[in-house]
Description:
DNA-binding; 12 helices
Amino acid sequence: MIKRAVTIKDLAKKLGVSKSTISRALRDHPNVKEATRVAVQKLAKELNYQPDRLALGLVGHKTYSLGLVVPRIDFPYFSHAVSGAQEIASRAGYQIIICQSNESLETEKAVINTLLANRVDGLMISISIETEEYDHITDLQERGIPFVLFDRVIDCIKAPKVVMDNVDAAFRLVSHLIEQGYRRIAHIAGPRGLLVSEQRIKGYEQALRKYGLEYNPAWVIHSGFRVESGEQTTKQLLELNNRPDAIMAVSDSAAMGAVLAIEDAGLRVPDDIAVAGFNNENFTRFVKPGLTTVSLPMYELGQQAVKMLLRQIEHPDGFKVPHPLTLKSHLIERGSTTRR
Amino acid sequence: MIKRAVTIKDLAKKLGVSKSTISRALRDHPNVKEATRVAVQKLAKELNYQPDRLALGLVGHKTYSLGLVVPRIDFPYFSHAVSGAQEIASRAGYQIIICQSNESLETEKAVINTLLANRVDGLMISISIETEEYDHITDLQERGIPFVLFDRVIDCIKAPKVVMDNVDAAFRLVSHLIEQGYRRIAHIAGPRGLLVSEQRIKGYEQALRKYGLEYNPAWVIHSGFRVESGEQTTKQLLELNNRPDAIMAVSDSAAMGAVLAIEDAGLRVPDDIAVAGFNNENFTRFVKPGLTTVSLPMYELGQQAVKMLLRQIEHPDGFKVPHPLTLKSHLIERGSTTRR
DNA sequence: TTTTGAATTGGGAACGGTTGCATAAAAAAC
DNA sequence: GTTTTTTATGCAACCGTTCCCAATTCAAAA
Lengths: 340, 340
């Protein structure tokens, strides 16, 4: 059925030499006669010979492929990282096998196993929300498998990591709100247990402390990244006797949910309540008022993760776990937090 | 360095039997003693044995991996398709290797070659904008390699395809505009040469014809999918003496660009000019007025593409190229096209 | 006991490459 | 014209599997 791809054997038969000679001629080994080499390479080109990467991997113990695990690729947040990773990888002659954990620990473990069975040269992992025990990750360390954690990382294990400056980003965002005159600042936080959530809460606290404002636990509510989460949580906040006058949401979508809930309650953004989010999603510049947000360089994060992984793969001897690489985010001030 | 993964040989040595026996025991071949089978499977589980997929692929001529080529994965449009494809594939025991052509024909050819060198069992391809000659695709056919074209397909070659009902979607969208009382309808079309662009223009024409409106070539301008494209093209349209009173853009982003340009010119949507787009991107429901759009089931499109490919791979005998599968889109009417 | 057949198991080729080592051929040195 | 060296090639093993075929075991039948 399938016209079998041309192999080294076919070339050998056609030229009447052994497959070793072909192999050597193709890789420019010094011990082949000029004439032979030229003939082989010409024929190879003619027949469109491509070495079989399976065979190559089997014998060479290297597949030039990297495994990438993200919760979902259809979150723009991650798809940018994936895209950045791909760029660097393919430029370095590696390809990437992308898997989704679907935010499930079970699936995360499964896809990591599949990737290893495919003999990837290394792994890049952004853990799922469910991932609260890390045996499958520490396993990798014990087995000496090169890997990098990125964005959604695990705080308590020492491993190569590339992350966002979440603490700092939240700190700057809250500082901005305070400087705009807002004092009763609430936070729609991310899911409980996720490091990102904790870090943004930490930055939020630090900013309050710096400006001498008190931390009100009732104003920090763990929720989710989605519009609905933001909408619902905001409704709760609006019912407090001591209503906040600003909301920092863990994502732009949640922030958008907050805006919808606020307007639904007959209040106005930013006059009654300011709103800000994270990610600089495309809609933030289209809505009115424009949504203040933090731009996170996810594309670059993907790129850096691959670079860190390749360093590990290509110089395994003497590789030392580097300090986590923290990428700087960028505050984008828009109308939703600007007192008129 | 890397603690070598446990192989069938290791199991054989440990149990004092031959590797053939191990292999058979693991795949529940009838010709193994119950006791042996149990012992082997127990040990395999203990040592966390995973068959090496490279070796499997090499001998079995089947890798259970599919190649997927899209212009970009960080376009939400495609990332949903990719996600849908992944779901079905992994449910069927296949994995997907995703590559981006970056809208370059050169790269498209290159990644297809890489995927073949990796011995994928089949390919799913959404062609790049640049792809105007199809030798690399017809090659696949000649070599008997299973593949499916999806979304961005090639009209003139007979191959398995999964597509959107672009003609019909545009037809319904324009009909809707006409029914809302708009008569001078312009179209910010997609890049020239792309089938999607042609199809949407066709649907646009059909709707005009049905309602007895004349087709004005000056109102159909080839442009791009991005906000800037829409913005710039709209500026051109606004300068015409015979200004349109409605704009159908090829994408929501371009539509958003149109809205920005219109408002920038001191005009109002939808009173002066109506605007509609395609894709049902998240911001369309957040902006004011809400943007009328067409929801395209890209997730399902990815799913169907895999299903069609797997049918081909798993029953190669007697496989006949099916009619292109056309998925139904769904019109979402919002404020941007509703005369008040 | 033998014979016989079925149930198990082992050996080895194959998949498509790479590579060390032996060998043949050609060139250089004597 | 030998011997030695260099250069070019082939052979065979290996990577981790599967699978065909031959060999062994074992119990039941003769």
